[in-house]
Amino acid sequence: MTAARRRGRKSTLRAVAASLGAAERWELRLYVAGHTPKSLAAFANLKRICETHLRGKYRIEVIDLMVNPELARADQIVAIPTLIRKLPPPVKRIIGDLSNKERTLVGMELVPGP
Amino acid sequence: MLLSTLPKAPSGVRGLDEITGGGLPRGRPTLVCGSAGAGKTLFSVEFLVRGIEMGEPGVFMAFEETAEELAQNVASLGFDLERLSAQKKLVVDFVRIERSEIEETGEYDLEGLFVRLGHAIDAVGAKRVVLDTIESLFAGLSNATLLRAELRRLFRWLKARRVTAVVTAERGTGALTRQGLEEYVSDCVILLDHRVTEQISTRRLRVVKYRGSAHGTNEYPFLVDDSGFSVLPITSLGLEHRASAERVSSGVSRLDTMMGGGYFRGSTVLVSGTPGSGKTSVAARFVQAACQRGERCVFFAFEESPQQLTRNMSSIGMDLGRWRKRGLLRVESARPAVYGLESHLAFMHRTIREFRPAAVLVDPITDFTDSLADNKAMLTRLIDFLKMEGITAVFTSLTSAGANVEQSEAGVSSLIDTWIVLRDLEREGRRHRALCVLKSRGMQHSHDIREFRITRRGIDIGEDQPGLPDPKPVARIRRRSAIAARKGAPR
Fold first, then answer.
1. Which neighbouring-strand residues pair with B441?
2. Chain A residues within 8 A (CB-CB) of chain B?
3. Each residue's pLDDT tens digit, B119-162
4. Which CATH number does the domain A3-107 belong to among 3.40.30.10, 1.10.510.10, 3.30.450.20, 1.25.40.10?
5. What number is the ipTM of this complex?
6. Domain of B456?
């Protein structure tokens, strides 16, 4: 994804988020390290889940640690890819390419855990 | 052509570089394993801090403690991690992995860790890296197969980055490490051990493996104290100390005569005997003589306090207090059993290094431990150290009454150059003190058993054997004591 596209998506998302109540806004951060198959898969899987369950009320920020290595330490990243649910609280961490949809949904608390 | 040997990075851990012939393999990872509380973290911190002192910045990746906790824990050893971090010589990065907070959903790798480590190394230009304790990853993440593959990659990566690394791991049952990390780190493996035997704790270090390098294979006691981590090797110098032909007086002139001039300077003397046979008195004469020559002495008294010792020695004409006041004599009293064996040895090392004496008296050596093997190992270390420093040493040793003297001390005999045996002889309803030089390397010595007396003026050795055809010397001593008795001397 290019920076321009990301910026574009951000601004629309912000607009969408503003129209919704703060409690319903989903802020997601996906940490990757370069364009590896795993990170591309993770992004695609995340996008699919969000479009299905959170259409119109989510925002995905992709952080490439190859570009911003200092963020790995600041955000306690060890595994790649890591998805962090910043909002709604509490903060949740999900690692892996999100190919296991059930576990991803449980991890994001989109469905109740087993 | 001479093959270049494996380049080594001085570990900075006192004593370890002697065992490993120069330090840890430069540019490669070293595995340090040990059970909880064995000293792995302290070892790692010392390795980094000493590296920084040698101009090699470092990265400490902590998996178990936060940077603040780590800084606090090592502050007592005199390490100021926060200052080093502020000076951009050190990065402490705490890696927090909490299994309960992480959901695993498919494939992942540890690239995040690599990025962090790489960034930290670049930030300070690090030459040294510590990962403490990397096995925590196995507790935080469930995919062990993946972790193993990633750790293998991590060690290759560390090598490619040419950093000298210390990776710590928990000791496993039946294996060196719980996760078998020793298979990945193939260059150098060091094992730390902390055990308690008979309520006394000892710490030991062993170099299990050092590829491409000769190394000491023994277990070495090590110590963690306010000046850091130190390993006490049986000197890697082996038996290369110089042997002096100079004689020094034993402090008893007739004993000097029996040995043709006194002890060799730098030699090791054992004075053994049953309780009350006068070991301390004979040994203390040597200290007195050394002080009279203006030489510095350390008296390690493990049975008496300095005051008690001064009082007791003054009763036989020795004024130790005078030498203490003049700064020639230092009396160190401590019960060895209070500390671990290695603390005790290290304490003696430090005292000797500080005071730089020409002579040392240890009274007695028997108190160190009940275990004969440990005792001998400890004595070997002490004696090697003293010999390297060229210090003349006198040890006293207690033999239980009735035991065969020669046999009971057989364990240490080989370490001793001159061995003087004191014993009690019962004759005509009275105990007599007798002395003989059992062995003395490199000198002609008398083989007589001589009677001796401890008087207010010191030690008085008779001219001949007691109980043999010519009783004259004994008779003479008796006469003298009779005269003394008339003068009111205490008997």
1. none
2. 31, 33, 36, 38, 41-42, 45, 65-66, 69-70, 72-73, 76-82, 92-100, 103-104, 106-107
3. 999 999 999 999 998 888 888 888 889 999 999 999 999 999 99
4. 3.40.30.10
5. 0.79
6. 247-486
